[in-house]
Amino acid sequence: MSASSIMESLFQRSLDDLIKGIRLQLIGESKFITKAMEEIRREIKTTDSQTKAVALEKLTYLNSIHGIDMSWAAFHVVEVMSSSRFAHKKIGYLAASQSFNEGTDVILLITNQLRKDLTSTNEFEVGLALECLSVIATTDLARDLTPEIFTLLSSSKTFVRKKAVAVILRIFVKYPDAVKVSFKRLVENLENSDPHVMSAAVGVFCELASKDPDPRLYLPLAPEFYRILVDCKNNWILIKVLKIFAKLLPLEPRLAKRVVDPICEHMRRTGAKSLMFECIRTVVTTLTDYESAVKLAVEKIRELLVDDDPNLKYLGLQALSILGAKHLWPVLENKDVVINSLSDADPNIKLEALHLVMGMVSETNVAEISRVLVNYALKSEPQFCNEILGSILSTCGRNFYEIVVDFDWYVSLLGEMSRNPHCQKGEEIESQFVDIGLRVKDARPELVRVARDLLIDPALLGNPFLHRILAASAWVSGEYVEFSKNPFELMEALLQPRTSLLPPLIRAVYIHSAFKVLVFCLHSYLVQREVIHPSSVDDLATGMPDLGFGIKCVEVSDIAKCQSAADCGHDDEFNPRVSDISVEDSTMETTRDITVHEASSSVSLQKEPFTHESILNLLNLVKMALGPHSGTDEVEVQDRAQNVLGFIKMIEQELHGLLGEEKGNFEIGEHKVPKIIELMYNAFSKELGPVSVSAQERVPIPDGLMLKEDLSDLDNMCADVLKPPSSSFTTGNPQFGEREGDSFFNLHGKEPEPSTESTLLLAQHRKQHGLYYLPSDKNETVSNDYPPANEPPLLSNLVDGTQDLMKLTEQSLASKKKSNHAKPRPVVVKLDEGDELPVSATKLTKESKDDSLSGALRDILLGDKVNPMSSQRQPSDKSSGKREKEALVDSGYASRSKQNLGDAQPSHGSSSSRRSKHRSHGKEKQRSPRRNNEGKEDTQKDKKKGSHHHRRHKTRQRADGPPNVISQTPVIPDFLL
Amino acid sequence: MIHFVLLISRQGKVRLTKWYSPYSQKERTKVIRELSGVILTRGPKLCNFVEWRGHKVVYKRYASLYFCMCIDQDDNELEILEIIHHFVEILDRYFGSVCELDLIFNFHKAYYILDEILIAGELQESSKKTVARLIAAQDSLVETAKEQASSLSNMIAHATK
């Protein structure tokens, strides 16, 4: 044993050897490390402390640099930590602070070791323990070591004291009850003459105030912070104090009045950019009501903006955008810099500039700015390009397209954005496409036009980022096909061979849209041939004056009829002939193909758009394109292809006969086909509308329906799936829209499926939702005299985007007041505003998390109003602990704090008189700030110091009595007035 | 507060990691990988701040080494740049014109120096002279202990005891 130990310590690889070894390994570094780990595992178990320490040092190295796990060695860390040699101890503590966490079980073993080191006479050992504790302290450690830390808070050695102050933050967070004991000492450290100690204390308060959900608690300390702000010369400390004020100022307007001058003074005087920037930030976030301060800050921001240092420029832009939310004029004043920054080399700066530009957007200039930005995006690199597109989309889409007046323009802008080669915003554009279709009736013709342009461009199919947009386009052109100028062309686009590049789900949307187009064409043809007289069909409740649309009700009897028709159609009539037709067709196809294309693309369809021939060609085209899909593996695609093909089969034969006959030579009653087509047409022309998120909740639950019993399990399973999307309405998604249509179709359509449970559910869902689709007559009052679609802007005559933008913002802002819209803004369908459901839940949990710490702090800082009045209660309060305290805080806090700050004067009077009876020095303390008010700073300081010493003296007498920060708190109101 | 400090070489090698907020080993590796990807690809004349997962990362390159510190949204970036510079100056004083190799072979020293500058994610010592004095004092404590330990006779005595 001893011999091997000597050998080990003599021949052990040192840390240097290990590092050199790793550096020599060009390849196979991991192999070398594995070998080294084996050695370490062996060495660390030795009894020789030197060998063990070196092994641990190597392990720490491998852990922090190479990320090798060292949690297995936790016990050995404890061993090395407790070594009596400083060198080993140091290695042990380093290892502990690198590797220990809440879950390390051996942490339980180190309490005594830490206590021993915290009370060591060697200040460096104390330092090690404190440093380690600041990283690894758990609730148990914090509780057990609070007395030691408390003692160290007033250590005479700066080295120890500043560390102890820094550690107290972690202690408070882990063990809020420590606040009761040591808060007062922490406050005393704010007044320490040593800047290091003061800096550490300010740092702790800065952290506490910024993490606390209720910074109001720190208002009582405002006088201390004010003194530091005025007297301190140390930039590090000043920055922290400014941060604290940034939290306090919004809570207390009177405080703002006091600090605005010193802050401006610092801003003017300081040579340190970091301090200057902090002053600027404080002003732009919290002191925006003080005109002179804002002016000065804007002046300084300007300095930052024109500086060559990109850091300063970036921060300047950031400050400007914070200010922009309150005052727009500084942004406009610096417009030149902002717009030039759009072409900066630094993406961060560009992004900030983009935010500022979007901040300048209003109803009047949105069109121009967007146009310039979209063109600018064409020239930018992909990432920034998408940032631009994204911010245009979110700005224009905000609050139901609030700033968009001309939807024709916006829809064509969406189309243009889709064509940007870098565009990756498919999802956003997709949802806006569908959303506008659903909400803005007047935009539909233009929407269909834009969708058509996107669909017929075969180049777009190859870009996977655009697939979602294409899906939306397909859906739009199917749903609103009545606005299409040329349905045949649309059909060809939907069925073009390159659609095979699309993912199956989107192909399914294409096919379903093709179905809608087909039904529309057939129906229009029949109307045109007067086979169907819109008004004469007795089943229909409402007539159709032209190709217009509206909500038509399909009656139940129809569905039944139709289903039976479909049944027999499938089983008896058509199946035997399939082969014949296909053979026949294939021969006809080749000859006709050319004519189809020519006919549909070149012949103008103005007068007699639907001819016998064109309809036949259409049917053949559909059959040919969808034939291969009927056998595909993709369920969605196959399903929809079968739907269409089945429909064609069902009507084809009779249609041929029908088409051959002359107009009006037959009786409608004898033929099923017109009825079927009529039915399908009506099914598809039922309008889909946006659905409120809470629609389901408003459906009264029918009697005898047990919702909870069967579906409660489903809730858990589908928790993720059922979560509402980020937009507040559910039909923003075309897939969903598609489903709707499909379920409808399945119900009323031809392919009768076994009525499974899911279809029943769907039926029910549909029925219920039917009630909540918006009635469309409301928006029909809008004027119909729509001007023709906007010409797309010419790209070529755009010289320089940024210059343009500059002029633009100028013009638009000059003419901001007058609105120059030629036409009224179309109605955007919004559901009732009561839909904003998801709020407060997250907020609540966050608050409860911090509750215990801020609860403890409340007790200390604001407890003064309660304590003197209920002096008997004090001891019981202390002993009964947290629960009662929290209850007290919860119930009484809000009103109490208000009282504290609002009508401070009366309460101050009463409490001071009460206290003056038994405590003379408290009174003295209260008076001093009055002098402060009068401006005699220096005398006041002396006084304060005097009282401070006095006070500390007193605390020594009663080690941890009730916190007597009390004497300090009544100070604020005076100070503030 | 500062959540962590990273030193990464231009080649993406990690030279020092110090975590002031709790991160598991897995998260640490992920953070390092992500950030070195973001920071090392940024050009030389760009600003020294990166927005990252709701935090800000302030970095500065000295020779071949990137010094990175992660801070909260409302922390002062320029102050952190000054802290980084402060750290570098102290390293420079301690090692005598510091280079990457110094930090590679004295990685623990770099930690001890950092621990005198920052504590709990806050600056604790703004005087270079004081840090130098404190480190020297601790070094001498370590050295005397080492001398005692490494004498051969001591080792043999210890082993045969």
UniProtKB/TrEMBL annotation, chain A:
Q: Where is this region: Disordered?
A: 860-977
Cell compartment(s), UniProt: Endomembrane system; Golgi apparatus
Q: Where is the composition biased (Basic and acidic residues)?
A: 875-888, 923-941
A single GO CC term for this protein reads: AP-3 adaptor complex
Q: Which UniProt keywords apply?
A: Golgi apparatus, Membrane, Protein transport, Repeat, Transport
Q: What does this protein do?
A: Part of the AP-3 complex, an adaptor-related complex which seems to be clathrin-associated. The complex is associated with the Golgi region as well as more peripheral structures. It facilitates the budding of vesicles from the Golgi membrane and may be directly involved in trafficking to the vacuole. It also function in maintaining the identity of lytic vacuoles and in regulating the transition between storage and lytic vacuoles.
Family named by the database record: Belongs to the adaptor complexes large subunit family.
Q: What is this protein called?
A: AP-3 complex subunit delta
UniProtKB/TrEMBL annotation, chain B:
User: In what way does this protein cross or attach to the membrane?
Assistant: Peripheral membrane protein
Q: Which PROSITE patterns match?
A: CLAT_ADAPTOR_S
UniProt xrefs under Pfam families: Clat_adaptor_s (PF01217)
Q: Name one GO biological process term.
A: intracellular protein transport
Q: Tell me which UniProt keywords the record has, alphabetically.
A: Cytoplasmic vesicle, Golgi apparatus, Membrane, Protein transport, Transport
The GO terms this record gives for MF are: clathrin adaptor activity
Q: Does the keyword Protein transport apply?
A: yes
Q: Where in the cell is it found?
A: Cytoplasmic vesicle, Clathrin-coated vesicle membrane; Golgi apparatus
Q: Where is the AP complex mu/sigma subunit domain?
A: 1-140
Enumerate the SUPFAM superfamilies for this protein: SNARE-like
Superkingdom field: Eukaryota
> What family is it from?
Belongs to the adaptor complexes small subunit family.
Entry function? Subunit of clathrin-associated adaptor protein complex 1 that plays a role in protein sorting at the trans-Golgi network and early endosomes (TGN/EE). The AP complexes mediate the recruitment of clathrin to membranes and the recognition of sorting signals within the cytosolic tails of transmembrane cargo molecules.
Oligomeric and partner information: Adaptor protein complex 1 (AP-1) is a heterotetramer composed of two large adaptins (gamma-type subunit and beta-type subunit), a medium adaptin (mu-type subunit) and a small adaptin (sigma-type subunit).
What's the protein name? AP complex subunit sigma
Q: In the record, what lineage is assigned to the organism producing the protein?
A: Eukaryota, Viridiplantae, Streptophyta, Embryophyta, Tracheophyta
